[in-house]
Amino acid sequence: MAVEKIFDITIFGATGFTGKFVFLEAVKSGALKKYSIAVGGRNKEKLEKVVKDIEHETGTAAKCGYIVADVKNTESLEEMARQSKLVINCVGPYRFFGEPVVNACVKHACHHIDISGEPQYLERMQLEYNALAKEKEIYVVGACGFDSIPADMGVVYLSKKFEGELNSVEVYLSSQAPKGSSFHYATWQSAIYGFAHANELKPLRRKLYPERLPEFKPKLKTRSVIHYSPLVKKYCLPFPGSDRSVVNRSQRHFFENRRQRPVQMLAYVAQESILTTIGTIFVAAMFGLLASFRFGRSLLEKYPRFFSLGAFSHEGPTREEMDAMSFEMVFHGRGWQEKTAEPTDQHVEKPDKTLDVKVFGPEPGYYTCSITALQSAITVLEEKEKMPNGGGVFPPGAAFADTSLIDRLEANGLHFEVIKARL
Question: What stretches in the chain show pLDDT beneath 50?
């Protein structure tokens, strides 16, 4: 007997560091008044405390449902999915805890949004659950947090504004944070195991995409490990996050389903000074060495603040620190004023047009993440008919390209704007 779906959205992991902010965003944005929302987690008393704390902070009665569910209890996850139209899954690392939630949601025709930045998990979910999700006419959209809505939707935005044929995009991430602030340990932990199991990606991608894309020219070349960018006026390093892998999946979708030339993308992180840049390289080298073996991973997990030079901690940032944080992503696009007849046709001439845009907003890891996750969920509920293929597993750019998600994000604190165009 089918159970009535009594909740539009369930925020699973609402007692966790990020989950609390997703629920707070639901209250502050007014979503709680428009949609029936539940908070989910292992302990009802802790869920009730989160709700009371947010009521006290906002001065708003937060009337919501409660669902007790545990990633180690399959029946509890299935019951959550039976009662929910959509689950926002905030329980990571997703390598360890993500699939049981996806499985329950797909099994019981419940949309699923997560905030993962873990390529192995994201691509494996697409490989293993896309067909069944499409059959059930539900959407599983990963990477809907800071990883990787700003990057993926930023490339979509740039492509729409380009008015020609976009060949390549270089993305530069900058962030502002008060001295001594740190991000929460959960992000650090996900990065540890993502790096440790990076060798899984090649065989996984061969299964996911058995046919290689055609080679498009001119090929976007990776810049030197340290380079100075006149565009952002900072020293830059390659960005090791999941943005590029997520964008590449969206671009492949556009090529295969829309006959649209895929955009090449490289991402960099901008630093304030050359000393900061060198320090970041030192941390990355130490991280890579230790994450390569079990004892080293144990040390990284136990002492995140020490090994990240204060960038990550078990406590995470304070609210005062978060209020002072912000991010900006600048996208430098190059291409041609005119399109070829077919997406696989090569241009004879060199690129003759550039366009720069930027995406910026509040503290990225929790404030922006909460906005992007919640608005992604609302977009699925409200604009399913504008999403592709009638259901399936997608990265955000592919899922939301034809929806009003960018408008929704702009109405809630993020900004997308053109900087300059040059022929």
Answer: 1
Quote the DSSP letter at residue 200.
G
112 forms beta bridges with 87, 140
Question: Please, are residues 57 and 45 in contact by the beta-carbon 8 Å criterion?
Answer: no
pTM for this model (two decimals): 0.95
Residue type for 232, please? Answer: V
Q: Give the CATH H-level superfamily of domain 7-141.
A: NAD(P)-binding Rossmann-like Domain (3.40.50.720)
Q: Which residues contact 40 (CB under 8 A, 6 or more apart)?
A: 10, 11, 12, 13, 14, 47, 66, 67, 68, 69, 80, 87
Write the single-letter amino acid at 275: L
Could you say which DSSP state residue 369 is in?
H
Give residue 2's pLDDT: 54
Residue span(s) of the chain under CATH 3.40.50.720 come to 7-141
Residue type, 328: E
How is domain 149-364+405-422 classified at the architecture level of CATH?
2-Layer Sandwich (3.30)
100: its two tokens: 């049981």
Q: Tokens standing for 89? A: 């899954």
Q: Where in the chain is the domain with CATH 3.30.360?
A: 149-364+405-422
Which pLDDT value is given to residue 184?
84
Tokens coding 318: 């304070």
3-state secondary structure of 313: strand
- Provide the b/e sequence for 301-321 (b: ≥16 CB within 10 Å): beebeebbeebbbbebbeeeb
User: Which pLDDT belongs to residue 354?
Assistant: 96
Nearest Cα neighbor of 359 from 92, 86, 146, 53 is 146
| pLDDT at 231 (0 to 100) | 93
For residue 421, give the 3-state DSSP assignment: strand
